[in-house]
Amino acid sequence: MRICNLCSGSKGNCTYIEGENTKILLDAGNNLKYIKESLNEINIELSQIDAILLTHEHNDHIKGLKSIVENYNIDVYCHFTLKDVVEKTISKPVKTFNKDFEINDMHIYPFDLPHDSIHCNGYRIKDGNAHASFLTDLGYMPEDVLNLISGSAFVYLESNYDQSMLFSCKYPIWLKRRIEGRQGHLSNIDCARTIEKLSKTGTRAILLAHLSENSNTPLLAFNTTLDYLKSKDIEIGTDIRVDISNQYRRSSIYRIR
User: Fold this and answer.
1) Residue 142 exposed, middle or buried by CB count within 10 Å (0-12, 13-18, 19+)
2) Nearest to 2 by CA among 195, 132, 151, 107
């Protein structure tokens, strides 16, 4: 499996996932031009994409969807509760699910995440023997979700905000409370605690995702994880790889076996 995050953050989210015989996008939260050019950088044409898999209906995850489906014949998959709002947005029928399913020979295991949307999904994706999990936009880490993603070689995991920085930033108080609430986003320290647990189940690569531009920094997110894991005798670079996604440029390519 090959994985490349094209962009991640409050302005747009999109990730390319490639299996043996299947190519998909997870979300389409940037404009058509950006997504097309980012894929071209890794020698992929948008016309090669088999499907777009949606996490939820917020604009930073579907912003480019309408333009893509108007120009390319790509199937769109979403949870059945999102059918009406997504079809209204793109004026095209979508494929829905309420349990695990397959796209070609890629097996998709969706799971619910606690977020203030109509419905929000994370995914564990299996292709051959490779397992990878993707989860952002969650106010806390449910135990059943942690159990489900355990053993994934690669995990794309939200590290949205630093609590001290959140409450000193320019956001209005209602938004700060929403972000830190149980239907909001995952903090740096809660992300780090999750990584500690995942590292003991076989996870070897983490990509910190969906960082806030106003209540976080890449260095702060990374150092929070670094310091916490060190306190648990887990070394980044030796025991586990930890990288940081970017709002404005793609990540390196991860090869998962």
Assistant:
1) middle
2) 132
Please give the pLDDT value at position 164: 95
Helix (H) or strand (E) run with residue 255 in it: strand 254-255
Q: How many CB atoms lie within 10 A of CB 67?
A: 16
User: Strand (E) positions, the chain?
Assistant: 2-7, 14-18, 23-26, 51-53, 75-79, 95-97, 101-103, 106-112, 121-127, 130-135, 154-158, 205-209, 241-244, 254-255
How many whole angstroms separate alpha carbon 207 and alpha carbon 230? 18
Mean pLDDT calculated for residue range 221-227: 98
Contact criterion met (CB below 8 Å) for 180 and 163 = yes
Record the pTM: 0.97
pLDDT band at 153 (very low <50, low <70, confident <90, very high): very high
Average pLDDT, rounded, for the chain: 97
33 CB neighbour count, 10 Å cutoff: 10
Q: Which two tokens stand for residue 38?
A: 């980012």
Which of these, 74, 130, 81, lies nearest to 103 by C-alpha position? Answer: 74
Which one, of 127, 50, 29, lies nearest residue 95 by Cα? 50
Say how far apart CA 49 and CA 247 lie, in whole Å: 22
